[in-house]
Structures are given as C-alpha cells and as structure tokens.
Amino acid sequence: MVYLRLSLARLIVFKYRLIIYIMGWICSAVICLSMESWLWLAFAAVVSDLLIISHAALAGPLSDIPTIHWLARWSRFYNLYIKYFHSISIAHYEAHTSRSNPGGYHPILRISPNEVSIMTTEGVKAVWGADFERSSWYGVFANFGKPNMFSSTSSRAHSSRKRIFASAYSKTAITQDRVQNIINTRVTKLVGFVGRQTSSDETSSGASGPVVIRNVLRALQADIFTAFAFADEAGTTFLDNLKNGRNTLEDLNMTAMDLFHDEKRDEFFFWESEKPFKYFASFLARNGLKSHETAQRWLMQLIRPYEAKARSKASIQSSEKSIKHFNCSVYDKLLLYKNPKTGNPLEWTERASEIMDHAVAGQDAVPAALEFIFRQISTHPDVQSKMRLELLTSLPLSAQDRTFAMIDSLSYLNAVVMEGLRLVDTISSYQTRVVPKEGCVISSCYLPAGTIVAAQPYLINRQPDIFPNPTMFDPSRWLLPREEYRNLAKSMWTYSSGPRSCLGRELSLAIIKTVLVDIYTRYKTTLLQDNRAQKRTWEGADFMAEVCFENILACEDGEWIERRLVGPSLLPATAQKQNQEPVRRRSILESGFSNSKSMPSGDNDCQEALTNPIHGPLAACPHFDTDPFAKAKETTAPRHTHRNLDPLMEYSEYIAPDQPIANGEQTTINVPPHQQVNAQA
Ligand code: HEM
C-alpha cells in the first residue's frame, strides 16, 4: 500500500514536474531569492528528476523485463531513433530473437521506460482480446479536424461509430453481386493492361517487359475502394490511365490519393505523431501537413458530387431500402445515419474523416500484400505450378461462370495467400494499447496501469514455436485438417484481433484472391528485380519489385495447359500420348518442380511416374501432392457417366467441401466429375 501511494505520488510529481518547477521559480522570484538560491533550486530539480528516472529504470515494476537496448530503460529516444532511421519491425524482431532464452526468443521486451513490445499470442489475446484502450498516438489519423473510428482512443466511441457501417464490410456484403462486380471489372482492366504489355513486345514472345507491380496495384485498389465506398459509377479510373513503364504515382496523378505513402508525407508522418515533436508539427512537418490538406481536398472532389446526387429524394429512398440488404455502400450508411438519441445526422466533416481513413487504410496495405505475394510466387516456381494446376482444374475459365465462393474454397490458393499475408510487413509502425487501472500480466511479467503494450504482425506471425522455420515462405504449413488450420489461423495477426481488428479483411482477401486467379490462369511470372533492401518495406517508388509476365500458353508447359483447357475428351488421349512422349512430360514436370528438394535426381518413384502410362504422369510421384488424377481415385463424390460433359459445366456442385485439407493427404485439388471419369478410364 505504501509502495502504491509512493508510486502514485511519484507519478503525479513526475507528470506535472514542469509546472511545479515553474511555480516554484515564480514564487522564489516573488520573494526575491538570491542567485545562489536559484542555482540550488535548479540543481534540486535536476537531482529529483534523475532519482525518479533511475528508480523507474532500475527498480520500477518493468525493471525485470529484458530491454531492447540498455538506453531503453532510461529514455524513449532510442526507440524513436530506430523508428525514424530503421525498419521498426525488423529491429524489434531481431531484438526479440537475438538473445538466448529458454523458449528461443523473448516474448516480452522493454522498448522504452514505459513501453513493452510483445511477441506472444497469449499476450495479444490478453490485451487486444480484452480491448484495452488505444494510446493517444492514434490521434494523428483524424481528418478534417474530426476524429474517426480508427483515431478514437476510447472503446465506446469506437464501437458506436463502427456500428454504423460494419455490415458493409462483412463477408456477406463482400460476396454480393454489387461488390463482386466492382472487383471483377477492375481486375479485368488490370489483366487487360498485362495483356497489352505482353503483346506489345516486338518479338511477340508472349512475355512482358518489367512491370512495377505495386504502382499498378495501387491504381487497382483506389478504383475498387472508391467504387465500393461510394457507388460503381462514382469511383476513380486510375486503371484506365496505366501506361508502359513504371507508372509512378505522379504519372497516375495519384499522389494525393496515396496519402501516407506519398514520399513527402511519410517523411513527416513521424514528426506529426511522436511526442514531443508533434507539438511542433506545424514547423517540423510543414510539407506533411500540406500533403494531408491536398489529400483532403482531393477527397472532397469525390464527396461533393456524390452528396449532391444522394440528396435527391429518390436516391435516398432507394438507399434506405438497400441498407437492409447489404447492398448499400459505406458512404450511403454514413449519409443515412441518425443518432438514435438526438436524431441528428453526422456532420459532413465526420463523414469525410471516416471515409478518408478507410481509403488510407487499404491504399497501400493491399498493394503491398499483393506485391509481396507476387514476389514470392515468382521466386518459388514449384508453388506457382501447384497453384496454377489447382486454378486450371478447379475453376471455370470464364469469370462469368465462377463465384467468389468457388475461389474461396480453393485450398492451395488459400494457403499461398495465408502464407504471403503471414510474412508481409504492411503496417509501418506498431500497434499500441494502454494497460488499464487493474494492471495485467504477460509472460509472467506484471505490467502496471498506464504501461503501453506494443505488438506487430511482423513479430507475432514469426513465433518459431507456432510457425516452425518462421522466415521461410512455405504454403504447405496451411494444408491442415480443419480444426488444426483454424487454430493456426487464430495465431496469425496480419489483420490484428479483437473488436478493433481490420475492418477491410474480407474486402482485401477478395481482391487478392481474384487478382491471383485472373493472373495465374493466364500468365507465368518471374521476378526481374527484387529490391528488398529498403529502409522501410513499403517505402519509395524506386524500390519496388519488377515482375515480368509470360503468357502461359507460350511457355514451356503451354502445350500441356492447352490440352487441359480444351476439355475432358482429350484427356484419355493425353494419357496415351504420354507414353510416346516421356521427354516432353519430363520437361513439363521439371518446369513446375525444378527445385531439387521437390524433384531429387535419380528418385526412382519420380522416374517411374514419368513413364507410368496408367495413372498419368504425376500420380506416382510422391513429391507431387496435388495430382487431380490421384485425387480422382480417392474421391467419394458422385461419378458422372456422361463422357462428353462440358468441361466448364456444373463446377459449382463439385467444389470441394470447405478447405483446408489435411497435409500429405494429396487432396488439395477438387476434381470435377468428368475428370474423375476420365481418370478412371
Ligand atoms: C492486406 C490488407 C490489409 C491489412 C494487412 C490490414 C491490416 C490492418 C490492421 C493490422 C489493422 C489494425 C491497426 C491498429 O489497430 O493499429 C487494421 C485496421 C483497419 N483496417 Fe485494415 N488492413 C488491410 C486492408 C484494409 C482495407 C482494404 C480496408 C478498407 C478498405 C481496411 C480498413 C481498415 C479499417 C477501417 C481499420 C480500423 C478498424 C478499427 O479501428 O476498428 N483495411 N487493418
């Protein structure tokens, strides 16, 4: 008790010490103290400060927690230093994992006198699951001078705002025709752009020159989000302006849209958000503030005409009807909202602040995630082949015949996306929560009220006891029986967790999966330039991956793919032909499974597979676990007897039961009925 009182007194004295000193000096000036007494007073103030800081550093409740650096006990400037000059995610990850510990890494580290960083799912559950309040750092995300859902620190303010529009982001809403049409039409434009790149090559080799994929994806995200948030016809059309070459933000006229990743802005974002600099932001971050203003003005160009149109009675009535049917856009929901107690609508600045925050939230996260996945797929040809095989054998070729439910049920595609999202670093800073007055315990360490707990997806997603070989891109870790998959997915923290987790999760997954389907059923990708050495992973137009696209029908395994696309009637012939073409089949196999681990030279089973005419080229190879023919032998799905069935018909009936599927079960591909029949033949 005595200790508690002392701590409280210390806190008050420490927090208000400046005011106490100033008052003391004013009093002493009034009673005309001598110069010597003044110096003694100043000396006493410095000593008392040092005593308080030393006590907190060496004997306070956080003193037993290992530190990221010895300076971190004494000052928050060490942490600010890495925030400004390095990648905070990489620096914290290295600190958590670099020192010996019984568990192999430190689940908790002190990063400044009053702040700890955690790398434990249990800790995240205790803090984010219990919805501890946010720190004041989030205030920087307010727009138009108004707070929004994201910037509000209190959980109450957050949940009352979220209730207005959360249903527009639900999976039910995202799978409705309105949103699916928006996504599909924009992705089709993206595919058209890639098509123009591959056909513009003078040699007509079917391969494109390097494409700075992030910029193109930024255009995609902006066009999808603005159409989704307002209305299809009210969205931006950046995709229509894509050119050959780098498509920089300036070329696309997108600098205002890309608020937090416009170079001018992110240089200053630090000064605007970190104490004590933020108090001098108007001086330190002048360009950053200017670019925030430009972005606000830019957004007004979308909001004004939309509001003017929505004010017409007919439009409001139809929105009111559709609000009940998940068919209403986010902005319509904001527009139609009335406070249940006062009956007042939101002010326009509140609506604008909210929508601007949502736009910013996904504007670089989705392109960064997709670019990272492209990069991984392009450098892992075995993954690319398996994924393409699944797409070509399980989905109708025409976008009109497929639904998002079909795409969503593909286990290998899902595994690739999950693994990409596990490793990608989309958020440029860590998330913080403040320990409430009861305190809390994480990894056996007591954290008193007011302690700031920091966590990052980059660290949580790399816990070696949950994700063995955590830095390795290995989609197969997600091919698990349903229950095990769910448990693993719960430990992944890319979208955060708890009531304030990412609202755009379903939208972003739908965009990412649709892009991968539409690109990888048509193109093979390779990485021209990796450009991984950056200060911050999301930063700088000059530091982005350049991807080359090659039409799959023009590439090595094109003939095989063509045969598969033509339909089932050719498949028995394929099996016959395989017998006459062992060399050709070998090249097909090797092109997809060229890494020595998947296809060891001299492996008898694989050699046998290459010449086995009965079950197809892939069935007997133990390294190939996605063979549709092998699956056909095991499947319990009803068998069709019509041999001339249209290859693209009735797929929806035969989409496999919900993914994921057990590792090693060789069942990641869903086999449509006609292929089962042919495999039997
Ligand atoms: C791969 C893409 C994305 C990733 C990795 C991602 C990640 C996150 C994370 C980690 C948070 C929590 C941040 C914090 O608490 O500090 C968050 C919040 C949020 N995200 Fe996303 N996000 C993505 C895409 C999107 C998209 C496309 C949208 C909307 C269009 C969106 C809208 C939001 C919103 C509104 C919040 C605030 C939620 C709240 O305060 O309750 N996100 N996101």
Automatic annotation (TrEMBL):
Q: Which UniProt keywords apply?
A: Iron, Membrane, Metal-binding, Transmembrane, Transmembrane helix
Which ranges does the record mark as transmembrane? 12-31
Which InterPro entries does the record associate with it?
Answer: Cyt_P450, Cyt_P450_E_grp-IV, Cyt_P450_sf, Cytochrome_P450_monoxygenase
Q: Where is the composition biased (Polar residues)?
A: 592-601
Name the segments for region: Disordered.
591-611
What are its cofactors?
heme
The UniProt entry, under PANTHER family, shows:
CYTOCHROME P450 (PTHR24305), P450, PUTATIVE (EUROFUNG)-RELATED (PTHR24305:SF164)
Q: Which family does it belong to?
A: Belongs to the cytochrome P450 family.
Which protein, by its recorded name, is this?
Cytochrome P450
